[in-house]
Specification:
By secondary structure, the chain is an alpha/beta fold. Helix content is 46%, strand content 16%. The longest helix is centred in the N-terminal third of the chain and has 15 residues, at 7-21. Bound molecules: magnesium ion (MG).
Length: 241
Amino acid sequence: MTRKLVQKDLLDNLLKEVETAVTAGETLVVFDLDDTLFSTVNRHLRILREYAQRLESRDPASAGIVRAIARESLRYAITDTLKDAGLREELVRDLKDFWFARFFKNPYLLEDDAIAGGAQYCHEVVRRGARAIYMTGRDEGMREGTEAALARHGFPAADGKFASLILKPRFDAPDIAFKIEALAKLKELGRVAGSFENEPAHINLFRDTFPQARHFLLETKHSGKPIHPHPDVHRIKDFRR
Ligand SMILES: [Mg+2]
C-alpha cells in the first residue's frame, strides 16, 4: 500500500540521496532566499511602521490605517496590501516609493525571520556532503546584509566551500533571466540534487533544467502569476521534519 509522502519524508529523501551521491563528485542543493529560507513579513511591517510614524502629524487617520495592517493581511505586492487596507490612492503611491527605497537595503534585511527548520536543514545538507547554494534575486549591493542575516539565523556561512551565495550582479536585471544564467553556471560547478523556491515559475525552471533532481515549492507566498508548479514538484510549508 502506498501512502502519501509527508513533508518529513520528502525532505529526508533528498538528504538520503545527497548522502549516496557524494562519491560521484560535487553535489549541490539550491535554496532561494526571500520567502524560501527567510520570511519577509517583518521587513514589510517595519517599513509600514516607519511610514505611519512619519505620517502621524499630518494625517493621523491614514497613519492609523497603515499601522493597523496585520501580518496576516500582507499580500505579495505592497500596493495590494495598501489598497486592501483602504488607503487613499495618493498615499498608496507615496508609500510604494517609501517601501521601495528601503525593502532592498541591508539594514532592513536583518528584520527577516528564518523559515522554520531552514537553517538546520541547510546544515544537514552540508553534513551529508553537499554544498548549499543560496541563489537569490537580491543583488550584490545586498551581500553584506544577506551574509549578516544568514549568520544571525545560524545558516551555514557562504564560505565558497560548504555554502555559496550567488546574487544578481545588477539590481535591475530581471530575476528569471538572472536565474537562467546562474543555473547554466551551476552545471559547471557540480550536480544539482535538489532545489527550493517559492516562485512557481522559478521552480519550474529548475525542474526543466535539472529534471533528475528533487524540487520543492515553499507554500509561503509568491508573485501571484497564474503559473502552476510542474506535477513533479513537491510542496512544503517549511523545513520542519
Ligand atoms: Mg523567493
